[in-house]
Amino acid sequence: MTTRFGKSARMLFPTLALLVTGSTALANTLNQNVSWTVNRANTTTKYRVVAYGDSIYAGYNGSTVSAARYSAPTVESEYLSAPWNADIESIRRAKSGAVASDVYSNKIVKEKSYMQASSTRVVTFEMCGNDGLQARSAFKSQTGTCNYSGLTTALNNCKTYVAAAMDFINANAYAGTKLKIVGNLHYPGYDADNVLSSCTDSSTGAKVNMRTTFLPALAKMNYWMCAYASQKGFKCADNFAQYMGADYDSNGDGAVDSEALKYVLGESEASYVNRITTTLRPTIRDANTHFVSASSSYDYIQSDNTHPTYTGGTVTAGLFGGSTGSGAPRYTSFINGKSPIWNAYGHERMGWSLSTHGPATP
């Protein structure tokens, strides 16, 4: 019998419908900036982790005025504080609902000063999720003959701005930065997309399965994030593998699913896409039920079926501006590099994944 664990802070509002203020209609972006310092005992040395992104790094929880205190970059900071024996200032410059071009132009470029501070040791970013979500929504609304151009545009925009972001960070981050890392995309709504489209394919005259249509496009986005990372001196945190694959070998191929799904350094786009969409596709599972063993699972996705679950409370972020705060680390040491809740929530899993690339010293 499967053991299920409840969602944390389940909210009902989607990323792309954020209420801005009274008489104003709905807007599709919301700045959610947070600074949280992990204050370690018996040290005054402080280093900085700078994270740029959209609602994922923001720790979006459906609210226009708050966000998760421990979203992935702050979880990563908590991990780094232990081996470095230092305070870690987690700077999250995020914009919920932003597409890749917006994250690049209005966060990474316009707010470059945050990564130029001499205390900076890690710069991380994520983007492209909203490009994919918008393309998916547009495709789902189609009738008549299916038009796949929106998916192609989302992919091309993702490739353009991921590469541009890496180049800009390489040129502008503090010279002493030890780690630059990009996080790729999980597939929100994987089970919900296992339905037929309202449009029909021009070649077959039949409706298409939307999950089968969207998965290759997402795989290509994820491939290029990791491939560009290898080319441009970045690391790639494979969130797709961490979220969508079980933590045991479900198909008997001798590999843990979440390991087998990872991007392999040097592989071709065709090889990666085939591995994800065909060879290992039977091992992909909706992250609402992330199996940590054959009999136990955790829920990595909030009730909006998009954003990661979290624990540890919230901070002010949104309409009333960002917040600055500090607190002692929840965990001061990590057995085998993992906290007791490393795989129990979406943000905890993502933060742990980021931390596995962290340098031993600052």
Brief overview:
With 362 residues, the protein is α/β, with parallel strands linked by helices. It has helices spanning 55-58, 72-84, 100-109, 113-116, 129-140, 149-172, 210-231, 239-244, 257-260, 269-279, 346-355; strands at residues 18-19, 26-27, 30-31, 34-38, 46-53, 66-68, 87-96, 120-125, 179-183, 196-200, 207-209, 235-237, 290-291, 297-298, 314-316, 323-327. It has a single domain, classed as Rossmann fold, CATH 3.40.50.1110.
Major β-sheet annotation: 8 strands, mixed
CATH architecture: 3-Layer(aba) Sandwich
Topology pattern, helix = H, strand = E? EEEEEHEHEHHEHHEEEHEHHHEEEEH
Distance between the termini: 45 Å
Query: Would you tell me which CATH topology applies?
Result: Rossmann fold
Q: What is the percent of helical residues?
A: 25-40%
What's the CATH class, please?
Alpha Beta
Q: How many domains comprise the coordinates?
A: 1
The average pLDDT is: 93
* DSSP summary: helix tally: 11
What gross morphology would you assign?
globular
Poorly predicted ranges: 1-27
CATH 4th-level superfamily = SGNH hydrolase
Q: What fraction of residues sit in β-strands?
A: 15-25%
Number of strands: 16
